[in-house]
Specification:
Radius of gyration: 20 Å
CATH superfamily of the largest domain: NadA-like
Distance between the termini: 51 Å
Strand order of the largest sheet: 6-5-7-9-8
Strand content: 15-25%
Bound molecules: 1,3-dihydroxyacetonephosphate, iron/sulfur cluster
Oligomer: single chain
Order of helices and strands: HEHEHEHEHEHEHEHEEHEHEHEHEHH
Amino acid sequence: MQLSDKELKEKIEKLKNKLSVTVVAHFYQRDEVFEIGDITGDSLELATRTRDDDAEFVLFCGVGFMGQSVKVLSPDKRVVMPKIASCAMAEMINGIEYDDAVRRLNESGIKSENILPITYINSNAEVKAKVGEMGGMVCTSSNAKHIITTALKEGKKILFVPDRCLGQNIANQMGLESCVIGDGSDLNESDIICFDGFCSVHQLFTVDDITFYRKKYKDILIAVHPECDPAICDASDFVGSTSQLIKYIKELPADQKVAVGTEFNMVNRLRPNNTYVLSSTKPECPTMNETTLKDVYLTLKAIDDGAPINEISVDEKTQKWAKIALERMLAL
Ligand code: 13P
Ligand code: SF4
């Protein structure tokens, strides 16, 4: 028998009250899943706030690297995910591809001791561990500029993985030289050398979309996430991470129109009026959308039955170095 959302929510609430579980949901989750979150936020908020939470289980509604980050920072917690959905960008680089990127820099004459690697939090634990072992750290889209400013003080070349757009957007904001490995540039000429990864959801926005909205509504503002292409960010009025976008849009006067270039579910619930999705296609993250209320219910039920499903585990060495890379970021 198919249960309605209302019935599923009641069953979920009952199990939440009975079990030592905190339900965590990223801003990009479907509305009905987002609504049952005890802790909601962007990827950094979720990783840090769950660290201070004392429930035995964290039930994480998001994508794989986010659940892994919670496990890495809090190895004693049991982290389960209703769906082990992958972030397509995080999947673009694994340990072998990371080593290959370092080798490309070495072949250009940049010695490993002169490379400071920084990985966007949208990467798997294996890559975070490689970065940690090389003396580098993690960043998020909220703190990337601050982390890179601090890192540059070491006078090294920055290897930025996996998101070429975030790396290049930050370089542009800071007036630094950047390139993407394989784009034909001389790597020695760049301060920030980016791996060629990207988010396909944020690639959906085009300069034509911006032109369309600016023509349609004279004083409209354009606000986008830094995973968008540099050409989109340059043509926008505001570029910010998930939480920075939320703050910016919520503080706008009620009659100010804004078109937003980021994930659909989040934009949709931001502000009742005068807020538009900056795309004619629906920019939904397919994997973020995989988690349903039924999945959450079944995951809670499995805990109640004493046989948790989809539990995240990270081997000891990876956990150690990935934690160091994450903690270097948190210390800054
Ligand atoms: P946040 O770090 O802002 O939560 O974003 C994660 C993400 O996947 C954006 O596409
Ligand atoms: Fe990954 Fe893009 Fe989805 Fe964010 S929106 S989780 S970067 S695929």
